[in-house]
Write a structure and sequence with these properties.
The complex is a heterodimer of chains A (365) and B (383). Chain A is built from 9 helices and 17 strands. The longest helix of chain A has 13 residues. Chain B has a two-stranded parallel ribbon. The chains are: A alpha/beta (365), B mainly alpha (383).
Chain lengths: 365, 383
C-alpha cells in the first residue's frame, strides 16, 4: 500500500453525515466525489494547498501551506511528512515545520533546501507553484521546546539546521518568551543564512534575544571550544543543536564530558540506521504470504531482504516513520536497527524498514 | 457442472504451435526484446500518464453523477434514456478502463494511496481480493493452458475441442446468454474457484472468508442500485430501478463481449501442460502472444473496452498502463514479423462472431481446432 496523509480532524457530525450516505456511493466514498470539487475536502487524508513560495537564499524556499482541515497544532521543532507529486509519482519527505504553531490563519510552512541529487527538494525549490495540492502526513519529532520553558536557552544551528529552531523561536516570540535566548547560527556566507532578515528583526525587537551569525567561509566551522568565548554561560543553558552529523557528534561529546547530557537536545535529520549500533545476528525470514524464505544478515532491514527476493513489499518512508511497511510478526524476534534494541512479540505489527531479524522470524507479508 | 480437462493425446492433428518452431536461443532473444519494450515504457512513465488516469477517473465520476441526476429528474423519456446511457457508460469505464487496470497494478508506480491495486474496489460483484487471485494470478500466469487456466470456458463452457464433451454442454448456447446478462455475478462466482471447492482444496475458513466478502459486495451493490436510489426517487422509484437494472445489464453484456473476444476467437492458441513445461520468460511471452487476440477499433472503442482490444499487449505486459498499449503495438508487431509469429487481431464483429460460432459448435461433441492465420505479414513497424 502506498503512504497516505494523516487522518484529518473532522467534526463528528460531518463524519456521521458522510457515513449515512455511503451506501449511495459504494464502492467509492462520498469523499471521492467531493474531492472533485475541492481536493482539500477529503476527510480520508489531510491535504494542503500551497499558498505561497518565497525564496529564502539561493537554494532554499519557504513553502506556505493551507491545511485542508483545522491544523492539529505541532510542537515547535517537530517535522511533518509531506507527499508531493513529482512527474506523476508521489514522493514523501520529512521537513521541519518552520511556522509558529499558533499562526492566526492556521497555515503552516516548511523551508526545504535544494539537494541536487534528490527529487523533492529540487522540485519544491524550482517547479512547485501556488495552488498545488500536497498530502500532509504525520507530525513527529521529539526535538521540541520543553514544557515548562527553561529560564535560559542556547540554540546552535548550521545550514538548514535552523529550520526546526525557527519554529521554536517564532513560538517563543509569539509568547513573548524570548527572555534570555542565544542563537549561534552558522552558514557559509551571509547570503546563505536562511531567515536572515527575520532573525535580525527578532534580534532588534527583543532585548532578551541575541543572534550570533557565523560565516564559516571566513571564520571556519564552530566547535565546542568556541563556546566559552561566544556564550560563556553555556553550561547553565538548556541547549538545542541542529546541523550536520559531525557537528552534533562533537557537541554531544563535549556535553557528555562535562556531565551535561540532560541539558542537550538535538536533531539529526537522517535517522542513523545500522551505523550506530553493532550488527546483530541476523536470521532466516519466512514471508508467509509470499511463501518465500530469505536469509538476512543482522544489519539489513527485513524490507530490503524481501525486496531482494523479489517480493512486492509495501513501503513508504523507509525510515521508521510512516508505518506503511508494517507486517504481522508471527514468531521470532527483531532488532531495531536504529537503537539496537531487541523487540517483537507474537502478533505484533512491526515495521520492516527499520528492523532486522534476530534469529528465525515468520512474518505475514 | 463439467470440468475443463485436457485429454491426452490431442484428438486431432493440430497445427504445430509456432512455439515449437522457435529455437531456445530465439526464445531467449525474443524475451529480451519484450523486456526492453517494458523497461522503456516504465522509464518514461510520468505526468502525462498520471493526467490520463486522473482525467479518466474524473470523467467516470462526472458521468455517474450526471446519470443519477438525470434519472432522478427523469419524468421525461429522453432524460431517462440519457441517464441510463450515462450510468451505463460510467459503469463500463469504471469496470474496464479503471477498475480492471488499476487492480492489475498498472498505476501502482504513481505510489498514489487511492489509485493503487492494494486499495481499489470496483463497481461490480467480485471482491478485489478474489478477483486479483483468480484473474491476475491464475489467468495471467497460466493463460490458455488447458486444465490450469480456469478462464478457458470459465469451467462451464466448452470453448476448445480438446475439452472433453459432456451432455451438460448441450445447454451451453442458452447459459451463454444468461452468463452474458449476469456477467458480474458469474465472474464473482467463478472467482470462488468452484473446482477447488469441489476438490476440497479450499479450507472451510478460507471459503467462509470468501463467501462473506462476496456477500458484503453483493449486498452493497444491490442496496445501492435496487434500494437506495429507487427509494430516493420517490414516486419514480420503478423507473429508477428499471434504469439501474438496464445499465447493469448493458455493462454486463459489454464486458462479456470484450472479455470473450480476448482469448476465444479462432486465432488464439491453447496449450497442453506438457507444451509449457520448464517454460522460460521468453516462452511465457510467446504463449501470451499466441493465446490472446486483439480487437480492432477506434480510440473511443479502446477506451470503453479498457484497452482490452489490445489484449495481446495486455497479456504481454499486464502491469503496464493501458494507455500505453496503442503506443507499443507497432513494436510488438515488429517482433512478430521478425520471428515469424502471428499477431492475432480482427474487427469486433468478426471476433465476436467467431466466439459465438464456437460456443454453438462445441456444445455438440467433436469439433476441430480452428485454422490459424499464420505468421504476421503486416507492415513492419517504423524504426
Amino acid at each position: 500500500m502506498a503512504e497516505r496523509g494523516a487522518t484529518p480532524k473532522v467534526a463528528p457530525l460531518r463524519r456521521r453525515a458522510l457515513k449515512a450516505v455511503e451506501s449511495l456511493f459504494t464502492p467509492l466514498l462520498p469523499d471521492d466525489y467531493l474531492e472533485l470539487i475541492n481536493p482539500l475536502w477529503s476527510t480520508r487524508e489531510l491535504r494542503g494547498r500551497i499558498e505561497q513560495i518565497k525564496p529564502e537564499t539561493g537554494d532554499a524556499v519557504t513553502v506556505t501551506i493551507r491545511p485542508g482541515h483545522d491544523w492539529d497544532r505541532h510542537k515547535p521543532g517537530q517535522y511533518l511528512r509531506v507527499g508531493v507529486v513529482v512527474d506523476g509519482k508521489h514522493h514523501w519527505r520529512a521537513y521541519s515545520l518552520t511556522s509558529d504553531p499558533n499562526r492566526a490563519d492556521g497555515w503552516i510552512s516548511i523551508t526545504p533546501k535544494r539537494y541536487e541529487p534528490g527529487v523533492v527538494s529540487p522540485y519544491l525549490t524550482r517547479n512547485a507553484r501556488p495552488g498545488e495540492i500536497v498530502r500532509l502526513g504525520g507530525v513527529e519529532g521529539t526535538f521540541v521546546l520543553p514544557d515548562p520553558l527553561p529560564p535560559t536557552m542556547l540554540f546552535i544551528s548550521a545550514g538548514s539546521g535552523i529550520t526546526p529552531i525557527m519554529s521554536m523561536l517564532r513560538s517563543l516570540d509569539h509568547r513573548d518568551a524570548l527572555d534570555d535566548v542565544v542563537l549561534i547560527h552558522s552558514a557559509r556566507t551571509p547570503g546563505e543564512v536562511i531567515f536572515r532578515d527575520r532573525l535580525q528583526r527578532m534580534d532588534a525587537r527583543n532585548q532578551g534575544f541575541r543572534l550570533m551569525e557565523r560565516h564559516t567561509a571566513e571564520q571556519g566551522r564552530i566547535t565546542p571550544d568556541h563556546l566559552d568565548e561566544l556564550c560563556p554561560d553555556w553550561r547553565e543553558r538548556e541547549t538545542f543543536v541542529c546541523g550536520p552529523r559531525e557537528m552534533i557528534d562533537a557537541f554531544c561529546e563535549r556535553w557528555a564530558a562535562e556531565g551535561l547530557t540532560e541539558r542537550l537536545h538535538m536533531e539529526r535529520f537522517q535517522p542513523i540506521i545500522g551505523s550506530q549500533v553493532e550488527a546483530g545476528q541476523g536470521g532466516t525470514i519466512r514471508f508467509m504470504r509470499s511463501n518465500k524464505v530469505v536469509e538476512c544478515d543482522g544489519s539489513t532491514p527485513i524490507l530490503v531482504a524481501g525486496e531482494g527476493a523479489g517480493i512486492e513489499m509495501p513501503f513508504g518512508c523507509r525510515m521508521g516513520i510512516c508505518h506503511t511497511c508494517t507486517g504481522r510478526l508471527c514468531s521470532g524476534q527483531l532488532r531495531d536497527l536504529r537503537t539496537g534494541e531487541i523487540v517483537g512479540t507474537e502478533g505484533e505489527m512491526v515495521r520492516t524498514c527499520v528492523n532486522a531479524p534476530q534469529g528465525p522470524v515468520d512474518i505475514a507479508l | 457442472m463439467a470440468t475443463v480437462e485436457a485429454e491426452r493425446p490431442p484428438q486431432f492433428d493440430e497445427p504445430a504451435s509456432p512455439l515449437a518452431r522457435l529455437t531456445d536461443e530465439q526464445i531467449e532473444q525474443l524475451g529480451k526484446e519484450f523486456d526492453a519494450i517494458h523497461d522503456e515504457v516504465f522509464a518514461e512513465l510520468g505526468d502525462r500518464d498520471r493526467r490520463y488516469i486522473q482525467s479518466m477517473i474524473e470523467m467516470q465520476r462526472r458521468l455517474a453523477v450526471m446519470g443519477r441526476i438525470l434519472l432522478w429528474l427523469g419524468k421525461y423519456r429522453p432524460a431517462q434514456v440519457a441517464g441510463t446511457a450515462a450510468l451505463s457508460l460510467a459503469k463500463i469505464l469504471e469496470n474496464m478502463e479503471i477498475g480492471h487496470n488499476v487492480m492489475h497494478g498498472q498505476w501502482d508506480w504513481m505510489n498514489d494511496p487511492q489509485i493503487h491495486s492494494s486499495s481499489w474496489d470496483w463497481d461490480t460483484a467480485s471482491t478485489p481480493e478474489a478477483w486479483k487471485h483468480s484473474h491476475n494470478y491464475v489467468h495471467h500466469t497460466y493463460t490458455n493452458i488447458l486444465g490450469k487456466d480456469h478462464d478457458l470456458g470459465y469451467e462451464i463452457m466448452r470453448i476448445d475441442p480438446d475439452q472433453k464433451w459432456n451432455p451438460v454442454y448441450l445447454a451451453q448456447p442458452i447459459y451463454n446468454i444468461v452468463l452474458a446478462a449476469f456477467f458480474e455475478w458469474g465472474v464473482a462466482l467463478h472467482d470462488l474457484d468452484l473446482e477447488a471447492i469441489r476438490k476440497g482444496e479450499k479450507s472451510k475458513k478460507q471459503l467462509k472468508h470468501e463467501l462473506k466478502g462476496m456477500w458484503g459486495k453483493a449486498r452493497s451493490q444491490i442496496v445501492k442500485d435496487y434500494i437506495a436510489y429507487p427509494a430516493l426517487s420517490g414516486r419514480n422509484w420503478k423507473r429508477t430501478l428499471q434504469a439501474n437494472f438496464a445499465s447493469n445489464m448493458i455493462r454486463n453484456f459489454w464486458s462479456y463481449a470484450i472479455i470473450f473476444c480476448g482469448h476465444f476467437p479462432d486465432q488464439a492458441y491453447t496449450f497442453h501442460p506438457e507444451e509449457v513445461e520448464n517454460e522460460t520468460r521468453g516462452g511465457w511471452y510467446v504463449r501470451q502472444l499466441l493465446g490472446a487476440a486483439n480487437i480492432e477499433g477506434s480510440p473511443l472503442f479502446h477506451v470503453i473496452s479498457g484497452n482490452l482490444g489490445y489484449q495481446v499487449e495486455h497479456h504481454l505486459f499486464p502491469d503496464m498502463p493501458s494507455s500505453r498499449y496503442a503506443e507499443i503495438a507497432p513494436k510488438v508487431k515488429d517482433i512478430c514479423l521478425r520471428y515469424g509469429l502471428p499477431y492475432n487481431s480482427g474487427p469486433f464483429s468478426q471476433q465476436l462472431g467467431m466466439v459465438q460460432r464456437k460456443i454453438l459448435r462445441l456444445a455438440f461433441p467433436g469439433g476441430k481446432p480452428s485454422p490459424k492465420p499464420g505468421p504476421y505479414t503486416g507492415e513492419p513497424a517504423v524504426r
